[in-house]
UniProtKB/TrEMBL annotation, chain A:
Residues 67-176 form the YNCE-like beta-propeller domain. Keywords: Signal. The keyword Signal applies. This is Membrane protein. Residues 1-22 form the signal peptide. PANTHER family: DIHYDRO-HEME D1 DEHYDROGENASE (PTHR47197:SF3), PROTEIN NIRF (PTHR47197). It comes from Roseivivax halodurans JCM 10272.
UniProtKB/TrEMBL annotation, chain B:
InterPro entries: ABC_transptr_sub-bd_PQQ (IPR022478), Leu-bd (IPR028081), Peripla_BP_I (IPR028082). This is ABC transporter substrate-binding protein. It comes from Roseivivax halodurans JCM 10272. It comes from the Bacteria. Coiled coil: none annotated. CDD domains: PBP1_ABC_transporter_LIVBP-like (cd06268). Residues 1-23 form the signal peptide. Keywords: Signal. Belongs to the leucine-binding protein family. Residues 54-203 form the Leucine-binding protein domain.
Length: 325, 394
């Protein structure tokens, strides 16, 4: 009787709290060969499951049902059920897949093959290779423009951003950037592309408004007491309003917060060691960072631009993706 | 032996170019002198026929892949000759109009060839390690991609000092190159606060280095040679000519770690190095050459990548333009060693991390943490600007 009363009283309250929905966070652990699953409300680890050899790039289908993981040392992309964590099937990826980007419709998947100087285009429904696009040496970063016209690949030794036309898979533009470009990130309005250069220590700002992409600025970093050589930009995320760019600085153990109006770094947020990739929660309240050498993720309060929590995950966390609402 | 690799990739059809695309033909040569030498102590160290050239082939592929997006084509001619034919071989390359030459030769030959090449030609040194070449005998037309003895000795010294192993027993070979290397270790000890408490020379008496019962002799001779040394924490071997150092570990009178030419060795690169994306380099190299990479291959690859990077950024294959860009403030290159490499403007030496290799894995990498420098930690390795005796770059 009392139990029933309690339920009756508290259920509406629980429902009211529901809109701040918990989302699953998936972290690929490069050395641990696992994926760690966390809850974005409690930040508790829900599960850790085997994900093949050297899981790095990680993304999720638009409906949140399928988790794609680059198992680099298995030369394949493994696909998991996000509810049961069962491996459903693998996708042909070409050798040593590291990073990929999914078309907003859920197919195809564009995969960078580091060993073969190729971008492989895979249909996620038929599980077949649709195209192979020769690019520069050591392709790595992948992004798709919001209008889906361009897939951008960065090549680490060639030091270019290659603009692949999604219509005919031909490269239409190349933009030279600084040494070892690792990651490419479009603003939501598609007007700007950011490319991080790990060894060059810069972020190239590429204007997409004209007929051809144009390099307009290079963002540089400086932290007192940290050797310039250790300021190595890798992962990057920009807020949906396009105002703030967050850049992971690898062995500098910091996230740079950049005002995209002025391209000034307004803050460096100290996180875990060797910070690699980033992901927002869908409401953009939090930004998550994978910290490869301290085996944890850091949760950043985006509005406050402050680190609020670190959570241990598997060995050498590399990539992170948050399930959509 | 003459071979021609040519990367004449027509390139893919590009609708438009964001980077200025103008046809540039880059013609380079790799000249290697093959010296008559005894067999190495270990079969693992036998010289492959394509030593250095395999690195050139990989660089041709890497540069060519990048070049196809810019309309740049790369052609690399490789020539291997005995010492007496080197001058004629260089003359022939210059006659063909090639003015970008990577040379794998010993110090005295490199210097003579650089003089012969003259100021219009850019020479990249991918082998010779002597400090004089970077000092009083430096030449304005030479860029040194190979690290110097001083850089390697400093790399070892920093690690030893980090370990607090500061009392050294230095064992030098008796050849000129061995003594030059030994001198670099003495200087490194002084620079970083270590002490050479004992210094002995192991005479090179010639003869075959491998015999069926060689280890029996070694096992009896080396303990005797190393006994009664002053109290020391490590043995440092300076054996540039490779005739005794590999015997030292396990045959010393006192049980001590060996560093330098055996044990923990300072190298520019090795076939097991995987950090900082190097796995990708190794995979590409292994597939191309069918063997593991050697320092000569890496240094040749890197020399040609320096040229490729300068051509990519300047759009010019002119030797002067490439030299100026390489020595300029803008130049930096990723070399799978964690930080960008660049050239010292006072002597043309490539500043770079040195890997400390135990024969299986990268045991450590110098510069070590805590060795500070006002401009670049990489300049804690080797002869720094204030001490340099090179005047050709002023």
């Amino acid at each position: 009787m009392r139990l029933a009363f309690l339920s009756a009283c508290c259920l509406p309250a629980l429902l009211a709290a529901a809109p701040a929905a918990a989302n699953k966070v998936f972290v690929s652990n490069e050395r641990g060969n696992t994926v760690t699953v966390l809850d974005s409300e409690t930040w508790a680890v829900i599960e850790e499951f085997d994900a093949g050899n050297r899981p790095r790039g990680i993304t999720i289908s638009p409906d949140g049902a399928l988790l794609y993981v680059c198992a680099s040392d298995d030369d394949t992309v493994r696909v998991f059920d996000t509810e049961t964590y069962e491996e459903l099937y693998t996708l042909p990826s070409g050798p040593d897949p590291e990073l990929f980007v999914l078309h907003p419709s859920g197919s195809p998947l564009y995969i960078a093959n580091e060993d073969d100087n190729l971008v492989t285009v895979v249909d996620t429904e038929s599980h077949t290779v649709e195209a192979e696009v020769p690019v520069g040496v050591e392709p790595e970063g992948m992004a798709i423009s919001p209008d889906t016209r361009w897939v951008v690949n960065t090549s680490e030794t060639t030091n270019m951003a290659h603009f692949i036309d999604t219509g005919d898979y031909a490269i239409k533009h190349n933009v030279l950037v600084d040494q070892r470009p690792r990651y490419a990130e479009f603003t939501d309005d598609g007007k700007t592309l950011f490319v991080t250069s790990e060894i060059g220590g810069t972020v190239s700002v590429i204007d997409m408004k004209g007929d051809a992409p144009e390099l307009v600025h290079k963002i540089e970093f400086e932290v007192p007491g940290v050797l310039p050589e250790w300021l190595q930009p890798v992962g990057a995320k920009v807020t949906s309003d396009g105002k703030w760019l967050f850049v992971a600085l690898g062995p500098a153990n910091r996230i740079a917060v950049i005002d995209t109006e002025s391209y000034e770094v307004v803050k460096y947020i100290l996180v875990g060691q060797r910070v690699w990739q980033l992901a927002f929660t869908p409401d953009e309240e939090y930004l998550l960072t994978t910290n490869g050498n301290s085996n944890d993720i850091t949760v950043i309060d985006v509005a406050a631009q402050e680190a609020i929590k670190s959570v241990p995950v598997g060995q050498q966390p590399w990539g992170v993706v948050v399930a959509p609402d | 032996m003459r071979q021609l690799w040519s990367m004449l990739l027509a390139g893919m059809v590009m609708a438009s170019w964001s980077v200025a695309a103008q046809a540039v033909e880059v013609r380079t040569a790799v000249l290697r002198i093959d010296y008559p030498t005894l067999a190495p102590i270990s079969r693992y160290d036998e010289r492959p026929d394509d030593l250095g050239f395999a690195g050139a082939a990989l660089a041709a592929e890497d540069n060519g892949t990048t070049g196809q997006f810019l309309g740049h084509t790369y052609e690399t001619e490789t020539v291997a000759v005995p010492p007496e034919e080197a001058d004629a071989a260089l003359a022939a390359l210059l006659d063909e109009g090639i003015d970008l030459v990577v040379i794998l030769a010993r110090d005295e030959d490199l210097l003579r060839l650089a003089n012969q090449a003259g100021p219009e030609v850019l020479v990249l040194n991918a082998l010779a390690e002597g400090d004089a070449l970077r000092g009083e005998a430096c030449r304005a037309n030479v860029l040194h991609v190979a690290p110097s003895y001083a850089m390697e000795a400093d790399a070892v010294a920093q690690f030893a000092v980090f370990k607090k192993w500061s009392r050294w027993f230095l064992i030098e070979g008796s050849n000129e190159a061995d003594r030059a290397m030994g001198e670099a270790y003495r200087r490194a000890a002084e620079k970083f606060g270590a002490r050479v408490v004992e210094d002995r020379i192991y005479e090179d008496t010639g003869g075959a280095r491998r015999t069926d019962t060689g280890h029996v002799m070694v096992q009896r001779q080396l303990p005797v040679f190393t006994q009664d040394a002053s109290d020391h924490q490590i043995v440092v071997a300076a054996d540039a000519t490779g005739y005794f150092a590999p015997y030292l570990p396990f045959h010393l009178w006192d049980p001590r770690p060996v560093m330098g030419s055996a044990g923990l060795r300072p190298v520019s690169f090795h076939g097991a190095h995987e950090a900082w994306g190097a796995t990708q380099f190794q995979t590409r190299f292994d597939a191309l050459a069918g063997r593991y990479v050697r320092e000569e291959d890496y240094q040749t690859w890197l020399a040609l990548r320096v040229i490729g990077e300068a051509v990519t950024r300047t759009g010019s294959a002119d030797a002067d333009a490439i030299r100026d860009y390489a020595l300029g403030d803008e130049f930096e290159l990723a070399a799978f060693k964690g930080v960008p490499v660049s050239f010292r403007q006072w002597n043309g030496q490539l500043r770079q991390p040195i890997l400390l290799y135990d024969g299986r894995i990268t045991a450590s990498v110098s510069p070590q943490d805590g060795f500070l420098h006002q401009s670049s930690p990489l300049d804690t390795l080797g002869i720094d600007e204030p001490e340099s005796t090179c005047t050709a770059f002023q």
